[in-house]
Amino acid sequence: GFxxxxxxxxxxxxxxxxxxxxxxxxxxxxxxxxxxxxxxNTVKIEMGNDRNTSTGPNAATMRSRDEYPNVQRxxxxxxxxxxxxxxxxxxxxxxxxxxxxxxxxxxxDQYIWFKNTILAVYREY
Length: 125
Hints:
This protein is of the alpha/beta class. It has a single domain, classed as TIM Barrel (Alpha-Beta Barrel), CATH 3.20.20.80. The protein has four helices and three strands; from the N terminus they run E-H-H-E-H-E-H. Helix 1 packs across helix 3. It is globular and about 45 Å long. The two termini are 23 Å apart. InterPro entries: GH (IPR017853), GH59_cat (IPR049161). It comes from uncultured Bifidobacterium sp. It holds the Pfam family Glyco_hydro_59. This is CAZy families GH59 protein.
């Protein structure tokens, strides 16, 4: 299917739009993800790393190995939850990363970062 990419701080702007123009925001989300024949069914979310990317930094969900993931730092998760709330079917969500937070120095650390973040998103949304 077709989808949106939440990366390079773009969803932060969209969440500002949601706060300032909620009716228009929900109209957009309904147009993209709602109805019997949605335009899109996928949200791809960049895992932030607290470092600058091409257009701006995305916040990391975990800033140390032992920190509980703060998934509200990444607005892409809220976007995915909003999309699912209007969808008549399942929204497919995938994660990508351009770089890792400084504390992630091995594949095992990356596994912990992704796994703990995914579980926290499930609990939050």
